[in-house]
Design a protein that fits this description.
Number of strands of chain A: 7
Chains: A alpha+beta (175), B mainly alpha (54), C mainly alpha (253)
Number of helices of chain B: 1
Radius of gyration of chain B: 22 Å
Strand content of chain A: 15-25%
Structural class of chain B: mainly alpha
Strand order of the largest sheet of chain A: 2-4-5-7-6
Helix content of chain A: 25-40%
Distance between the termini of chain B: 63 Å
Number of helices of chain A: 5
Helix content of chain B: over 70%
Number of strands of chain B: 0
CATH topology of the domain at 57-143 in chain A: OB fold (Dihydrolipoamide Acetyltransferase, E2P)
Order of helices and strands of chain A: HHEHHEEEEEEH
Oligomer: heterotrimer
CATH class of the domain at 57-143 in chain A: Mainly Beta
Largest sheet of chain A: 5 strands, mixed, barrel
CATH superfamily of the domain at 57-143 in chain A: Nucleic acid-binding proteins
Distance between the termini of chain A: 64 Å
Radius of gyration of chain A: 30 Å
Shape of chain A: extended
């Protein structure tokens, strides 16, 4: 071994020295601060978010059933956009969603996301209208998508582009 | 619903795709490079018999 | 020794001068080829999705990154368990190396997920159970790495880290099951034991992603492990030298 110390005392029996030197080499206050911050943020997030995870959103039928208790309280609403109900308004878009056959009319303020279309499941943030009806005023729309992926069929797409319309349904491809 | 929507969708999502792939490929590349550089520097300070791979 | 040109342990000595070896060289080349194939299929040959358009391509890096971050967490937990059981330094360093790479992949998962969420959901982030638990996993991994940086003796430090390392397993389980247990914006898994909700070239691209990212993960963990190993050796050397110097100077310890 070509490791040659300056002098040659045996380096055994230096356990105390080892720990002293190592401690000095490893002093790191920022790491301690980061750890405390991480634990604090983690705890906060866990309590805050996972605590309300079961009511992350209400389906349209549940929301209607809880209409009275919900009042004008803010909550998330989920449902599927009913075909033929979408209409542009001055400040956004209005449409109907339904879940388990229970419809709710939605007045959304703002531009809907690009993937917003008929039969799409959407998640809305807002509240029931103050007039006591089942109309829902939303100011945030999130489009849900499923875990199912289907190839976009180029032939149909080109055909649709030629006709100036989007294909309504696309057959499942592959296999 | 018109052509513009299809085209808009097609051009609108590519920046996100490019950014996501750049993050993963760039991140892996940078990490790999940094690790190799660290390894080369440290290797010089360690006797060969303690580097057990060959 | 014959020469002193490249430092005390230069290239003239036997043994590798980097963390590379013949095996990792071959692995690295195969990995680069796999990444090339992933680009080819993921970005060029695979079709756009009926609903999502080209945004679906983010899946080919997002899902494998997430999966490998879970693998990294499990490897860290295994390393931590073996360390606690047998006081094996080797396994402690495996846990360390794998935790750092897992943190990198978790970061990829979060960032690519946000970039996927914006064009599909319409938002970068939502505090649903999946995204929240994933963020917690990131924090736990950062916590693990922070614990390793806190001043303490080797044994104490490794033991603390190992305990945090074991906590990764329930967290990964929560992340994985969150979409089943709670109402989330995030969709349920596309690939499951009951079958795949994806077909043809899209499925193949995802498969390519798993291969390429897995190979990258293995390469990174091996190299990071060797860096950690070298650090341990340098620490030990530095210690010997420091003690010797102090003795030579007549300092009483």
């Amino acid at each position: 071994m070509e490791l040659t110390p300056r002098t040659g005392p045996d380096s055994e029996g230096g356990d105390d020295a080892v720990s002293v030197v190592r401690r000095k080499r490893r002093v790191s206050v920022p790491a301690m601060v980061i750890l405390v911050a991480v634990v604090a943020i983690g705890g906060f997030v866990m309590v805050k978010a996972l605590g309300s995870a079961t009511t992350f959103y209400r389906n349209a039928d549940e929301a209607v059933a809880q209409r009275d208790s919900l009042g004008v309280r803010r909550f998330r609403l989920q449902g599927t956009v009913v075909p033929g109900t979408i209409a542009q308004t001055g400040e956004g878009v209005t449409f109907e969603i339904s879940y388990n056959g229970v419809p709710i009319t939605v007045h959304h303020v703002g531009d809907p996301p690009e993937m917003f279309k008929e039969n799409q499941t959407v998640l809305l943030e807002g509240r029931f209208d103050a007039d006591g009806t089942n109309a829902y005023d939303s100011d945030l729309m999130i489009v849900k998508h499923s875990e199912v992926y289907k190839e976009k069929e180029q032939e149909r797409l080109k055909e649709a582009e030629a006709n100036g319309q989007v294909p309504v349904t696309t057959m499942r491809s592959g296999s | 619903m018109s052509n513009a929507l299809i085209l808009g969708e097609a051009t609108g999502t590519w920046p996100y795709v490019a950014a996501a792939w750049a993050v993963v490929f760039g991140g892996m590349g940078a990490y790999a490079f940094a690790t190799v550089v660290r390894g080369r520097r440290l290797s010089k300070k360690v006797p060969p018999e303690k580097r057990r791979w060959s | 020794m014959t020469t002193e040109t490249a430092g005390p342990f230069g290239a003239s000595d036997s043994g590798p001068t980097s963390t590379g070896s013949r095996t990792t060289m071959i692995l690295g080349i195969v990995t680069l080829v796999a990444l090339g194939v992933l680009v080819l299929f993921g970005l060029i040959l695979s079709p756009a999705d009926e609903n999502q358009g080209d945004a679906v391509r983010i899946m080919y890096v997002h899902v494998p990154s997430a999966t490998l971050s879970y693998v990294g967490c499990f490897l860290t937990a295994i390393g931590s368990a073996v360390f606690l059981w047998r006081k094996s330094r080797w396994w402690d360093l495996v846990a360390y190396a794998s935790a750092e790479v897992a943190a990198l992949f978790t970061a990829f998962t979060l960032v690519t997920g946000m970039l996927w969420g914006r064009p599909t959901w319409g938002v970068f982030w939502v505090w649903d159970a999946r995204l929240t638990s994933e963020a917690m996993l990131m924090l736990l991994l950062l916590g693990y790495l922070a614990v390793r940086g806190i001043a303490a003796d080797y044994g104490v430090r490794a033991k603390r880290a190992a305990i945090v390392g074991l906590l990764l397993v329930p967290n990964v389980f929560i992340v994985r099951q969150s979409v089943q247990w709670w109402r989330t914006l995030h969709q349920t898994p596309t690939l499951s034991l009951s079958g795949a909700e994806i077909q043809g070239l899209m499925l193949f691209s995802l498969f390519t992603g798993f291969i390429a990212i897995t190979l990258s993960f293995i390469w990174m963990v091996i190299h990071r492990f060797r860096v950690a190993w070298l650090e341990e050796q340098v620490d030990a050397e530095g210690l010997d030298t420091a003690i010797a110097e102090r003795r030579a100077e007549g300092v009483v310890l």
